[in-house]
């Protein structure tokens, strides 16, 4: 049924209104799935472990994937076409490692050449395959997007897109426009035989031809997922083996992010007595 796919209902800036954005951001099941996919996307970026990356989060939404980027110690720019989603994202104003931009991906990227060390996108690229007005051409919008993305990526970097292809033709359309723009790469399909666990990632590379990462399978799940979880845990350690993990959102966690941003030469908010306090639930 077409109504099972939100991209069939109209443009994302209308679908993700205040009500839908709030439901999306507060749904624990969605948060868990989006977090896991963002972890996998960052793993597929294959970033150097000793470097703080400057990443682009395309279709950043309410900030679920951005939280994962921050947890890995990277700085990021989030781009989304939904103002309500970005407003929810901006509520985490204690995070000095992000910048947010309201923009339609199909209109192209507004960044300087070679700006980013990598890019991820969770559940967003398939929206560009649908025309929501008579002047929109999905093929042209995809090409404009990939061409401008390629330009703002550093050479030898990667962009990873998790998406839900509607059919083989849609996957071919997306990949063909990416390759036409200069990228090389292909699809990595995790758990291809599973109905629920199957996830599709388009791994795009700049520079020379590289071997695609291996997909996860049922047999490799424990080992592979263990590696990803260990990466996530390491960034919360205080620096000495055996010490207790810092809880995300706590004052200590915020202070650690602020210190990291200061070392990177970024402007950060001054420490406040409200840092780390829980906000009241919005209804």
Automatic annotation (TrEMBL):
Domain 18S rRNA (guanine(1575)-N(7))-methyltransferase Bud23 C-terminal: 204-281
GO biological process: rRNA (guanine-N7)-methylation
GO cellular component, one term: nucleolus
The keyword S-adenosyl-L-methionine is annotated on this UniProt entry: yes
One Pfam family linked to the record: WBS_methylT
InterPro entries: Bud23-like, Bud23_C, Methyltransf_11, SAM-dependent_MTases_sf
Region (Disordered): 257-283
SUPFAM superfamilies (alphabetical): S-adenosyl-L-methionine-dependent methyltransferases
Predominant location: cytoplasm
Domain Methyltransferase type: 56-136
Record's signal peptide: none
Keyword tags: Cytoplasm, Methyltransferase, Nucleus, S-adenosyl-L-methionine, Transferase
Family from the record: Belongs to the class I-like SAM-binding methyltransferase superfamily. BUD23/WBSCR22 family.
Protein known as: Methyltransferase
Organism name: Pristionchus fissidentatus
Higher taxonomy: Eukaryota, Metazoa, Ecdysozoa, Nematoda, Chromadorea
């Amino acid at each position: 049924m077409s109504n099972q796919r939100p991209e069939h209902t109209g443009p994302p800036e209308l679908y993700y209104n205040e009500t839908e954005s709030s439901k999306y951001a507060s749904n624990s099941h969605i948060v868990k799935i989006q977090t896991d996919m963002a972890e996998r996307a960052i793993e597929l970026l294959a970033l150097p472990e000793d470097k703080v990356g400057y990443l682009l989060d395309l279709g950043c939404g309410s900030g679920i994937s951005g939280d994962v980027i921050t947890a890995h110690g990277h700085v990021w720019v989030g781009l989304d076409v939904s103002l309500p989603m970005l407003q929810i994202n901006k509520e985490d104003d204690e995070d000095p490692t992000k910048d947010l931009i309201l923009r339609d991906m199909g209109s192209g990227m507004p960044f300087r050449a070679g700006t980013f060390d990598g890019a991820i996108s969770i559940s967003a690229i398939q929206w560009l395959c649908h025309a929501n007005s008579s002047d929109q051409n999905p093929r042209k919008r995809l090409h404009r997007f990939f061409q401008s993305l390629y330009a703002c990526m550093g050479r030898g970097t990667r962009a990873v897109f998790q998406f839900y292809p509607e059919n083989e033709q849609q996957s071919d359309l997306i990949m063909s426009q990416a390759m036409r723009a200069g990228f090389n790469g292909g699809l990595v399909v995790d758990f291809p035989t599973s109905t629920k666990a199957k996830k599709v990632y388009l791994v795009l590379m700049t520079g020379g031809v590289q071997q695609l990462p291996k997909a996860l399978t049922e047999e490799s799940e424990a080992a592979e997922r263990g590696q990803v979880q260990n990466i996530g845990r390491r960034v919360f350690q205080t620096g000495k083996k055996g010490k207790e993990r810092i809880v995300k959102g706590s004052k200590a966690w915020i202070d650690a992010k602020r210190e990291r941003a200061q070392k990177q030469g970024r402007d950060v908010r001054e420490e406040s007595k409200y840092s780390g306090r829980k906000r009241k639930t919005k209804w």
